[in-house]
Amino acid sequence: MLIGVTSLAEDKPPKIGDVAPNFTLQDAEEKEHNLKKMRGKLVFLIMGNRKIRKEDDKWAKAFQKDYKDNEQVIAYIIADMRSVPGFIPKGFIRSRLKRKPPPVTFLLDWKGQVHQRYQTDKKKPNLYLISSQGKIEFHRKANFKPEIYAELKKQIGTLLTEKP
Q1: What confidence score (pLDDT) does residue 10 get?
Q2: 3-class state of residue 46 by DSSP
């Protein structure tokens, strides 16, 4: 369930250097996650849909392997749920996610509002690294590739060593 999306200039997608549009989404346990409340941490967003879930998971698995014990960095898969047939109950989807959890917390964008605001590509994962101040520091639309992941890791390393 989308609780809210806040942003300015919604006709243009956010770009590097912009403050990331805020959102509040729920996970499979119905716990709310608000981007603005995560300030102080680096936030890696992997935005996708059910058709590219395997690629989303590749990004999430690589991230978890390197950062699962780092409390300064957190990752989320934000799932565009608009393509899920309406006859499938939300509770069924949540129960499946609980039974077989993804590598990182999975947020459910039931109406696709976060994906619309970020103007995501439906054919590839949309990757955003948000700084501890809430600004977009890294953005790619790409299937998992080691060289792009290396760019992300380099950016994370730089941001972790910077003083606020």
Answers
A1: 58
A2: strand
